[in-house]
From TrEMBL:
<feature type="binding site">
    <location>
        <position position="68"/>
    </location>
    <ligand>
        <name>Mg(2+)</name>
    </ligand>
</feature>
<keyword id="KW-0460">Magnesium</keyword>
<feature type="binding site">
    <location>
        <position position="136"/>
    </location>
    <ligand>
        <name>Mg(2+)</name>
    </ligand>
</feature>
<dbReference type="GO" id="GO:0043647">
    <property type="term" value="P:inositol phosphate metabolic process"/>
</dbReference>
<protein>
    <recommendedName>
        <fullName>3'(2'),5'-bisphosphate nucleotidase</fullName>
        <ecNumber>3.1.3.7</ecNumber>
    </recommendedName>
</protein>
<dbReference type="InterPro" id="IPR000760">
    <property type="entry name" value="Inositol_monophosphatase-like"/>
</dbReference>
<dbReference type="Pfam" id="PF00459">
    <property type="entry name" value="Inositol_P"/>
</dbReference>
<dbReference type="GO" id="GO:0046872">
    <property type="term" value="F:metal ion binding"/>
</dbReference>
<dbReference type="GO" id="GO:0000103">
    <property type="term" value="P:sulfate assimilation"/>
</dbReference>
<keyword id="KW-0378">Hydrolase</keyword>
<dbReference type="InterPro" id="IPR020550">
    <property type="entry name" value="Inositol_monophosphatase_CS"/>
</dbReference>
<feature type="binding site">
    <location>
        <position position="291"/>
    </location>
    <ligand>
        <name>Mg(2+)</name>
    </ligand>
</feature>
<dbReference type="GO" id="GO:0046854">
    <property type="term" value="P:phosphatidylinositol phosphate biosynthetic process"/>
</dbReference>
<dbReference type="InterPro" id="IPR020583">
    <property type="entry name" value="Inositol_monoP_metal-BS"/>
</dbReference>
<dbReference type="InterPro" id="IPR051090">
    <property type="entry name" value="Inositol_monoP_superfamily"/>
</dbReference>
<dbReference type="GO" id="GO:0008441">
    <property type="term" value="F:3'(2'),5'-bisphosphate nucleotidase activity"/>
</dbReference>
<comment type="function">
    <text>Converts adenosine 3'-phosphate 5'-phosphosulfate (PAPS) to adenosine 5'-phosphosulfate (APS) and 3'(2')-phosphoadenosine 5'-phosphate (PAP) to AMP.</text>
</comment>
Amino acid sequence: MSYAKELLVAQLAVQRAARLTKQVFADSAKGTVSKSDASPVTIGDFGAQALIIAALKKNFPDDEIVAEEEAAKLREDDSLAEHVWNLVKGTRLDDEKAEKEVLGGSVQSKDEMLDLIDKGDSKGGRSGRIWAIDPIDGTKGFLRGGQYAVCLGLMVDGDVKVGVLGCPNLPVDDAAELSADIGNGEGRGVIFSAVQGEGATSRPLTTGALEEGKRIGMKKITDLSAASFCESVEAGHSNQGDAAQIAQKLGITRPSVRMDSQAKYGSIARGAGDIYLRLPVSKTYQEKIWDHAAGDLIVREAGGQVTDVLGRRLDFGHGRTLAENKGVIAAPAAVHDQVLKVVQEVLSV
Ligand SMILES: Nc1ncnc2c1ncn2[C@@H]1O[C@H](COP(=O)(O)O)[C@@H](OP(=O)(O)O)[C@H]1O
Ligand SMILES: [Mg+2]
């Protein structure tokens, strides 16, 4: 089974949505809609979700979609909806042909936009074709002026087949050192992609699918003490104390790099950094599939292994959440077992 068309549509959809988010990012208020500490939201989340779903519905009308946002807030507040609509109708790819022939052109009206946003309400599950969308992953990073990612994955019968991550604030250069710093914005913007069984690639976000991607691969490390690892900026998303103990037991001396969003998966997949740990803080939190689907495939296709802290593969067929998993360990396949063992010692699981 070839997923060439799905990959092309996903890359162009992410490229166009990322373009919308960049406009919001450039604004000092960052389009904040809600500052809720648990899950802040910006107008960029709604706009990017509408544009991605428009492209998916045009090309794959029967596929289901699991997306993070819903339009209820916009339906209650027309000036907010108008604001999002202005962004959505004004955002196109430079390539007119791709915009029209692949993405299906613009959304026709504000009402259509609201309906599209609400098409991301699938329950997910173990059968059929289901897309997972996180329009702005790492919203807290976005609001701080840091890293964020536009994320899209296709699952078929619960298995991720296509993954695309648009990271507007990561360096284009795959050889750049691991850092969450966005500098002055020069040389930034990369899109990571993978298709199951076909490897992972990166290319500049601005050229999107119009240019061949470059193969990426995880760093080959044998000595774990030389590894560098990354984790969430938010202490509420991943236990940083446990991570420090794990690093110490592995003999890692370099401080962890803290970075928001699935940009962490993309970074280690291209060998900028080696290990991504996401260690449960609360016993009850269930990870969301849109926070991991694309990254999980990209890392595995780049030569990595991704499991939870109990060593189980992430189960994307369970529904909208990874209810059957706890935490995430992403590392080069050759050393994943070693890392897992130490994680389990420290967490006593
Ligand atoms: N208590 C918690 N534990 C783990 N992840 C959480 C969490 N609360 C929120 N998140 C998720 O963490 C994501 C960001 O991950 P990271 O810390 O790697 O940047 C958020 O995505 P959004 O920013 O799309 O809401 C959100 O879904
Ligand atoms: Mg997210």
